[in-house]
Amino acid sequence: MENASKALLMAGGILLAILVISLLMIAVNNISDYNASSTELEAQSQLAEFNMQFTQFAQENCKGMDVISALNKIVDYNLKKSGPGELDYSQKITITVNVSGFNEKHSAHYLFGNTTTYTVTKQSDQLMKKIDEQRALENEYGLTVISALSSNESSLKSYYLNGNSDGMGRSVQEVIGKKVKDLEEKLKTNDGYEDLDRHAEYSNFKTSSFKGTVEDYYDNGQVKSLLFTWKN
Predict the structure, then answer these.
(1) Core-most of 85, 127, 184, 202, by most CB within 10 Å?
(2) What pTM was estimated for this model as a whole?
């Protein structure tokens, strides 16, 4: 009888131990699943936050300034070699800007010429060069000065190219209130007015409307390409 009781106690102890071990294993698995789930959620959150930098431009009415902002973000991102978490910085982003119709609307041809579509991944691409040239012009003389000169282009031409023969000419000093010798030298040739025309077209570009679209994603869900199409 005593041996039977001991056997029952031993069997009960073994069953209890098995039950405790089973519960521990379940707890460990649950913790592992929770950690894996938390990691996955964190990765998804990081990816969504990353994509939002670019998907924010996917809308019916973006301005040219928004296009320039998207271009800058994409060029900056494409320069990166590595990053945190699940992001794959080897996956570069492409942005395409279609300006078909812009020249006809604004009677323009100096800024874009006959080119209607630009594909950009880096700073040295053609559209970025055009934008940087206009930024440099604004930095050199100031946006207010360039805008004033553009608004008075015909008067400046009359003064510097035609010797004010019609009496309608105005000098740089009369337009902006000060002399700028190197600028006045430029305005004695057609090159100076082409600079003004390009900047006037650039100003129209910045205020034009575009439709923004996310064209494609990589397999891991990262944004791959954007498209901006000129509207008006």
Answers:
(1) 202
(2) 0.79
